[in-house]
UniProtKB/TrEMBL annotation, chains A, B:
<keyword id="KW-0641">Proline biosynthesis</keyword>
<dbReference type="Pfam" id="PF00171">
    <property type="entry name" value="Aldedh"/>
</dbReference>
<keyword id="KW-0560">Oxidoreductase</keyword>
<dbReference type="InterPro" id="IPR016162">
    <property type="entry name" value="Ald_DH_N"/>
</dbReference>
<comment type="function">
    <text>Catalyzes the NADPH-dependent reduction of L-glutamate 5-phosphate into L-glutamate 5-semialdehyde and phosphate. The product spontaneously undergoes cyclization to form 1-pyrroline-5-carboxylate.</text>
</comment>
<dbReference type="InterPro" id="IPR016161">
    <property type="entry name" value="Ald_DH/histidinol_DH"/>
</dbReference>
<keyword id="KW-0963">Cytoplasm</keyword>
<dbReference type="InterPro" id="IPR015590">
    <property type="entry name" value="Aldehyde_DH_dom"/>
</dbReference>
<protein>
    <recommendedName>
        <fullName>Gamma-glutamyl phosphate reductase</fullName>
        <ecNumber>1.2.1.41</ecNumber>
    </recommendedName>
</protein>
<dbReference type="InterPro" id="IPR012134">
    <property type="entry name" value="Glu-5-SA_DH"/>
</dbReference>
<comment type="pathway">
    <text>Amino-acid biosynthesis; L-proline biosynthesis; L-glutamate 5-semialdehyde from L-glutamate: step 2/2.</text>
</comment>
<comment type="similarity">
    <text>Belongs to the gamma-glutamyl phosphate reductase family.</text>
</comment>
<keyword id="KW-0521">NADP</keyword>
<keyword id="KW-0028">Amino-acid biosynthesis</keyword>
<dbReference type="InterPro" id="IPR020593">
    <property type="entry name" value="G-glutamylP_reductase_CS"/>
</dbReference>
<dbReference type="InterPro" id="IPR000965">
    <property type="entry name" value="GPR_dom"/>
</dbReference>
<feature type="domain" description="Aldehyde dehydrogenase">
    <location>
        <begin position="11"/>
        <end position="304"/>
    </location>
</feature>
Length: 433, 433
């Protein structure tokens, strides 16, 4: 594993000691949080939001120092913009924390239950996960979002943000912790790891102390965490998203959906990366579609049959390689292929997709049903943009990430996805024969 | 990791090639299984059960060879008994497969859904997990159980049983595969790995090919899998179970619950391993209880205060060490301690328990509520034996294991716990602004 080899042994041992201490404090905090009422937690959330506003000047100053260092290190302007905090952005972050107040408390919900033949009453209830580690990159708003969702769901959060936002995150977390303490909840409900990369290794191997780790960021980060972790992990956010335009598609609708899926925001995980078109409509659909892309400076990687159309219509392109079908461009760039059938599209998607979001555009019921049944992904959409894969859009209120794994949670994750369950048995002396 | 170092590099590479080939066949089978109707799957289950009965002679012969080798290798008689198959036991295994027919098909169940303000209809449905690897020890009935639960939930199963039952498992799996093929379902829905330990490593690192691995067996097996796996894992079955007898307990009830929890079957994961007694009732309760244990040849590990009682009543014991509080004896052996309060009992349990099943005996509502709220375990029981932690007892019909982790499934796991979910979006051209 990369991160293990990067830390000298002494530094790693020192990190393990320090991170385990943080995790033990988190466990104690989690014990108190699990007993807190919704009213307690909501009051603390209101105070956390206010603390962000009250400390806006300090946060902006710390953020300016982060930006200064970023510029000195040659950070590109796109990343600088993601990192930048203004009083207005801080107010938005505080509003996002306040929105969590209105969400129902998932803990305590009774999921199922019955009375057994011997009179024993059993019920399964939602309980907090306990201690959740979150490892993420760049944008400091994630720090406040994760803290708010953690408190509401009764979990103690250990946050490990990107080094580029270290100073911003430190001030944000200090503000949140003081607000928690003032409202009678443990400050250690939210802790920030500020050591080097060896802290990531220490966190993801803290078995028995950390109940779940959620990595949120680029493919490299996710791989490092998944391959190195011995605590349970939920993979998030890699989206090699396809839109398939079927032979029975409404081609006007298809064009709108492709443009929205690819270009609404190119840097997000639900953005389309590959367009597949049924051969029967390729000659009708592709000339206009490729022209649309060219007009919007979208770089094109085309398979042989799509290339023929582009050639005829005079659009510039590169031939698609095997790597293109597997690439999440996260940019104004798309791979385009022509397929012979809905099953060929499905097979291509299941072979190359990242199981995030897959779209079919068709007016044919059988094709839609087959696509929904056979495509293996967190979200499968018929005649709708891939951009809807989002906790807010799904009505979840807030999201901590989009799971692309099958275990525990799949798709947008919000408060209920941050909980576990507990079976409670109540009897009056039942024993088993 | 132990298993990695045990295989020479060449053998490991050969195993990876072979196991990946098995997993690819399983993926294809899983694709077909996901499209199979409940009627298809139930018909195949009936044929699988019948095939076990039809091949009983072959199975018994293979099992006799396994037993012969076990005796030659010095296998103890308890393990021999667990391994032994008779025509009667095979009939019971077939009956267990038939019982799965009556259980509802979990796949396709709509878990939640709504229509978004823009008219987009969304719903979350249960789908099969895909390919599940199962690594287990000894008893060959697990082979048929896992195959049946896998087929019913639409999952292709890759089974890796203990080497002691290798011949028995091979004949059982061959019978099940022929029954599947005769009923139009893929034989590769059930496959058996028969290589050495390197196959375990290959299976638990087959990312992208295997969706879930479930280890079922002793602590060593679970540790090896959890520490070495890069595919998602559900930990099962380690049960360091406590019974706490509160100051407000009905002591007659407490005695029955302790005896049932400890001695109903000592070798199972829901058996009690530690008894904690409130100091106010220790002098009343312990003399009888320790006498009961002594009369049943239960080996006692007592803390200082319990030791004083034993000394006064003339019962033999050993002093409990720190290791005793953490030990799952799985035998006629128990650790006993005296605690000062319900919170002291809870703290002891949270520090030493394996988060499986924890019991309080009390007539005090506040103590019961506090124990239920604060104890961190899959199952928390008030005034009932720990022996009820069992999928069959919970009315789940069948169980593939008892999860002691918090992610995905906690407690007894049956058919719904072997599924994932998929969000289906249906629109008429919706795009996101």
């Amino acid at each position: 594993m990369t991160v293990l080899t990067q830390a000298p042994e002494g530094a790693q041992q020192e990190s393990v000691r320090r991170v385990h201490e943080v995790a033990r404090r988190a466990q104690l905090a989690a014990g108190d949080l699990a007993l807190a009422t919704r009213a307690d937690k909501d009051a603390a959330l209101a105070a956390m939001a206010q603390a962000l506003v009250d400390h806006a000047d300090e946060i902006v100053a710390a953020n300016a120092a982060d930006l200064e260092r970023g510029r000195a290190d040659g950070m590109n302007t796109g990343l600088q913009d993601r990192l930048r905090l203004t009083p207005q952005r801080i107010a938005q972050i505080a509003d996002a924390v306040r929105e969590v107040i209105a969400l129902p408390d998932p803990t305590g919900e009774v999921l199922r239950g019955s009375t057994l033949p011997n009179g024993l009453q059993i019920r399964q209830i939602r309980v907090p996960m306990g201690v959740i580690g979150m490892i993420y990159e760049s944008r400091p708003n994630v720090t406040a979002d994760a803290a708010a969702l953690g408190v509401k769901s009764g979990n103690a959060m250990i946050l490990r943000g990107g080094s580029a936002a270290a100073l911003s995150n430190a001030v944000i977390v200090a503000a949140l912790r003081s607000a928690l303490a003032e409202h009678g909840l443990p400050a250690d409900s939210v802790q920030l790891l500020d050591g080097g990369r060896e802290d990531v290794t220490s966190l993801i191997t803290a078995r028995g102390l950390v109940d779940l780790v959620i990595p949120r960021g680029g493919a490299g980060l996710i791989q490092t965490v998944v391959l190195g972790a011995t605590v349970p992990v939920i993979e998030t956010g890699i989206g090699n998203v396809h839109v398939y335009v079927d032979s029975a598609a409404d081609l006007v609708m298809a064009r709108d959906i492709v443009i929205n899926s690819k270009l609404r925001r190119t840097s997000v995980c639900n953005a389309a990366e590959t367009l597949l078109v049924h051969r029967e409509v390729a000659a009708t659909f592709l000339p206009t579609m490729l022209g649309d892309f060219a007009a919007r400076q979208v770089r094109l990687h085309l398979d042989e049959r799509a290339g023929v159309v582009a050639h005829d219509t005079g659009v510039g392109f590169e031939p698609a390689t095997a790597a293109d079908w597997a690439t999440e461009y996260l940019d104004a760039e798309i791979a385009v292929g022509v397929v012979d059938s809905v099953d060929a599209a499905i097979d291509h998607i299941n072979a190359n997709g990242s199981r995030h979001t897959e779209v079919i555009v068709t007016e044919n019921r059988a094709a839609a049903r087959r696509f929904v049944a056979r495509v293996d992904a967190a979200v499968v959409a018929v005649n709708a943009s891939s951009a809807f894969t989002d906790g807010g859009q799904f009505g979840m209120g807030a999201e901590i990430g989009i799971s692309t794994q099958k275990l525990h949670a799949r798709g947008p994750m919000a408060l209920p996805e941050l909980t576990s369950t507990k079976w409670v048995l109540e009897g009056d002396g039942q024993i088993r024969s």
